[in-house]
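Late entry, written up from scratch paper. The run itself happened at the end of the previous shift, but nothing got recorded in the book at the time, so transcribing now.
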Amino acid sequence: MSIGLACLGILTGGAGQAVSDAAKRICHSIKCKYNYIKNLDQNLNELEMETGYLSHRKKDIDANIAHNQVTMQTTNECAQWLEDVLRMMEKVEDIRTRYQEVANGSRRMRLLSARLKLSKEIEEMKNSVVDLRKRMENHDVLVERPPQRVEKKFPKNIYEVPSLREHVEKLLELLKDDNIKKIGLWGMPGVGKTTILENLNNEVDKLQVFDIVIWVTAPQELNLRQMQQEILQRLKERTDWVEHQNKANLISQSLANKKYLLLLDEVFYKFDLSHIGFHDKCNGKVVLATRDKTICNLMETDEEIKVERLSRDDARKLFHSASRGFIEPIAERVLKQCGDLPHIIRAVANYLKDKDKEPVWRGTLSKLQSPNMHQLKHMEDVFNPFKVILEELGGIKDCLLYAASFPQDHEIYRDYLIECWKAEQLIGVGETFRRIRDEGHITLEDLIDKCLLDACKSSKCVKMPIIFRNTAITVANEHRFGLLVTDMELGCPPVESWESAKRISLMNSDLVELPHEPDCSEVSSLLLQKNENLSVIPPSFFDSMSTLKILDLCGTGISSVPPTVSNLTNLQGLYLNDCCRLVHLPQQMQLLKKVELLDICRTGLCTFAAVIGGLTSLRCLRVSFTNATVGNRNHIKVSAEVTPLGTIQQLSNLEELTIHVNLRDPEWKEIEPDIAKEVATLEKLSNLSFWFTSTASLETFIRTSKSWKNGSSQAGSNFRSFNLIVGSQETESPRLDVLKCTGPRYLQYSAGSDIPTVSIIKKVLRITSAFELIGHGNITHFSDFGIDVMGCLEVCLVERCDRMKTFLGCQKVTAFPCLRELHLLRLQELKAINEGVIPSGSFAKLRTLTLYDCPEIIKVVSWDTAKQLCQLQHLRVENCSKVEEIIATDNQSCGIGAFPKLKILELVMLEDLVRIHSDNSFEWVDLQQIEIFKCNNLVDLQLRAENAKKLQCIQCSEVWWLAMAMNGKVEANLQDSHPHTRYQCKSVTLSSIIFSQKSIRQATQYQSGAFSPFSGADKLHNLASWKQWPSNNSRNSMLLFLWDWIKKIGDDN
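Output as recorded:
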């Protein structure tokens, strides 16, 4: 053929080259077609092989789905892939059929043409099968919703401390690297490691990488069992049936299909993570904080970050902001002595706050420069400043040292700590319990302000910073305070160590038995609570403890108290609460004439022991009453036979009385009037928790109670606190946090039918700070109780009052000036919150407003009311089926002045809700977070860049979000439609959109930073997915909002 082509070139002269090229192309085409025809069978075999691989992959995925279908579900991508595989299999089957037809064909030329066409299709089909199989190689097949992705911490603010902030940012970057599994954070105590981890814990969610973040504070003495228990609780796994050796497997299985981040704080020893349940093959990462870099090496971390002490500029800024002053040049020298440790800087600065005299600063500097009295590894920069602060505490120094007797990172109940202080005579010697509690809370706030104690999330608790606790124990023993403390489940320490101890704390230490006759001639506090395996107290155990003042056996497994308890002649506080096996108190307890506090709540006692009546010095009694049915013998039985009348009235010194009653107890109604009469005889009561079964019983108590009258100008004002339940008891405990109130006085009134204007409840309301009204049958306006008697009300909950039309009726005087929280629940006839125009100053302090299941309300608030709610920060409206509008529209409505401080808006299950407000110029001055769920008719939130500048998060149903129509302009200019898109904006930022679909929540993050127009990699790279979303001619206001925002920022630049 080449010779022929050459001859053809000679014959054709100059045109030969063109003809030659054409001939080559023809030959190549013929050759390709020939190969297709020739390789038909081979191509089919290759297709069959790739189809087999695809089929096996599908079977593996189907098996995986079937195996995990109870707890998991397929991803949307996987579901689409499975559908595509089925369609692909149909196409392959069609290819097979057509191949058989071609193979059986008879006409030669027609057969060649068919073979050529089919062979081409088979090769293309093979490539499609390969591509389809590879689509799921690096994608999740199953997803599940974790118990809670992140449990928020409450760390110190570090945005003004770049030295610490940089570590958080670096950790966030390292966590993005798939090759890094373990990160070590190391540095000396007090340098800020825990603060960095807490900030990381709160911010890591924006990466959208981890299904769950687990925080564990490692025990100071290695204890894997305790760590496993904390982790299993975090994962919400039941462990009562799991043996210790199987807990690691349970943790491993629970995390098998999760991307997790384990944050380990205060790691003192090397240990194998696999022994806890974390394996290298697991899809997770670990960040650990330790004092020693050696621990990082032993734990085989991939990256180590040393946390240096603060830079001098950062330390200076922190010191200056905390001390509110800076006396040069002494301040620089004081700051240097603080070791550039943030916690120490805050403590010393708080001590020097507002002190502008040089002698004070020079004196402080001199004390800080004094030689250490005790050397501790890594603690040189902690000990001296802490010592100086302790010395300046004066009389409350021992109060702080006593707080060190509780386990590391332990949340201490404020009232319990105050009771211990009182029994140890550290505060309030000779004072009443009322004054002692007031003094104790003042002391606690003082210690918190000085950064020596930390306030907990629960307002009931405090805890001592870990950085100070070890030093406090050392200082305590230096000052002969005599602390013997064990933190872990190490059992009972050697008996010899008890001899010199004054305060022994073995709580939650897995004690099984106690020494028979320890030499404890100086001990004043013995804290043994939460040792459930401790079942017996040896008879001779108390023989040499005559100095003991506090004995805490709460939560132990004891069934009785030995008669030798009578040897504790100086005992003042005895805690037996939650000893569910305790069934007997010895008669010898009557000899404890100095006991002032007794707690026997939730025990196994079935009788109100007569010995209690002999405790004539008792000032605080806490007890539980219930019908002791079979299987529920955990409280004192209610009946006249086993609850001897006259016992309570013998306790003439009683100041605090708590009687817990089971809400299902029918026998309490029979004995309650007699018990109430006895309580009324007590003259010194200042704290009462009691269930009055009727208003008549309450009225009798108020009329006859010596404590309620007590010669004061306002009846009941002598009570520092109370927890009174009147009527058919609906709940065992308040749902309102009374500790948020200025005075913890709580009243619940349920199933009432009296006329509010003349109700005895009015007399109690005058001094009530938290009030729950439940199931009242006659009230039409809550204000019918009388505006004049509710001036002290701070928190209010109203539920199931089926005739209530409004919360506030027509009024001409200021109403509810101190109310901070209002919850309106299940009010079937509620038409509005208020009737008419509310007087100026009403609801002036209201911060939280909740409406739930109020089916008749149409407009939540009027425009005038919205302007009055100038302090409202949180508004939640849920399951109110007729609500059409949140803020009613009227002729005076305008976009300025309503809800100026609203931060959180939650709208849930509002079927008829059409809009929040009709005015497009409405200003959301402080709005930061919105939740929208099952509000399908709400199509316009009226959000723009100009009217919601602080908005950070929109949490909504993905169906609701996607169902909105999209404007083409928005579609063309938004960066990316994928839920993990990031937007870079200047100054003002919408930080996240959180989609909720079934059990999956995905977050869209929009991060702040320097503005840069979308270009290069920042351009639309997933535009195809926008095309698949629903679209019509109507405008999607939410997406317009995003586009307006971005466009405005671009215009400004």
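The two ends are 70 Å apart (CA to CA).
(Scratch paper discarded after transcription.)
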